Amino acid sequence: GTYWCHSHSGFQEQRGLYGPLVIEPREPEPFEYDREHVVMLTDWTDESPERVFAKLKKRSDYYNFQQRTVGDFFRDVRTQGLKDALADRKMWGEMRMNPRDLADVSGYTYTYLMNGVAPAGNWTGLFKPGERVRLRFINGSAMSYFDVRIPGLKLTVVAADGQYVHPVAVDEFRIATAETYDVIVEPSGQDAFTIFAQSMDRTGFAAGTIAVREGLRAVVPELDSRAMLTMADMGHGGMGHEMGAMGNEAQAAAAQKPADPHAGHTMPPAAAPGNPAGGQAAF
Ligand SMILES: [Cu+2]
What we know:
Layout: E1 2-6, E2 18-22, E3 35-45, H1 49-58, H2 70-80, H3 82-95, E4 110-114, E5 123-126, E6 133-139, E7 146-149, E8 155-160, E9 163-170, E10 172-175, E11 180-185, E12 192-199, E13 205-211, H4 248-255, E14 281-282
Parallel strand pairs: 1-14, 3-6, 5-13
Antiparallel strand pairs: 1-2, 3-4, 6-11, 7-10, 7-12, 8-9, 8-11, 12-13
Copper (II) ion (CU) binds near residues 6, 8, 265 and 282.
């Protein structure tokens, strides 16, 4: 299956010490393909990672330039009324959270890479028309989630985190940090298709091309509009405006992070919760 490895020493991973790890199966796989490419998505900064970390320790939203403004407040007053607009600010304020907190580090400092190549470098994987192509997507970023699509192609997901899944055809998938997805595509009808992986906070993208020869490029889409977090995203679905009056217990729950797939990392792979086969190797 498709795995990857990276350093756990200091900030070596953010500095690029990682790599794909493909383990050939002993038994035949439950799907067929004619060729394969690894598509590793990462985030690169020219700043020293120590400096990035130091900034975040002092101000966690340092790299977020998408915060709500006074203009958003007046728009909300117009559409929701003054009382609801104020209650919404109070609710987020009391949680000390931010509905535009989609990523700690953004495209302000990051360049998003595909197989180590910036979008302008146009990493290219080749195919012949009619072939079934297996793309091994790996999110090897330090902290970026990507929404991935190939305009014009259906993506048939056949494995997740190295484990086979019942094939499912999608137009787009979201890949979290450290996850892997194996996808089969059948490109035909045009010479080049863009692999477009936009960061979840829509501050940038990684992009490359699958094409019949080197040097081709298909249209690269615009970034989609950014999402706004809701109470449901914070684990408070259905609570609506009661949030303003929530007690300490609810606030403690709000502060709890959702299960982190990376969290089982320092344990032996077999002991990692919810991941009996071990999602990755660390060295
Ligand atoms: Cu790790």
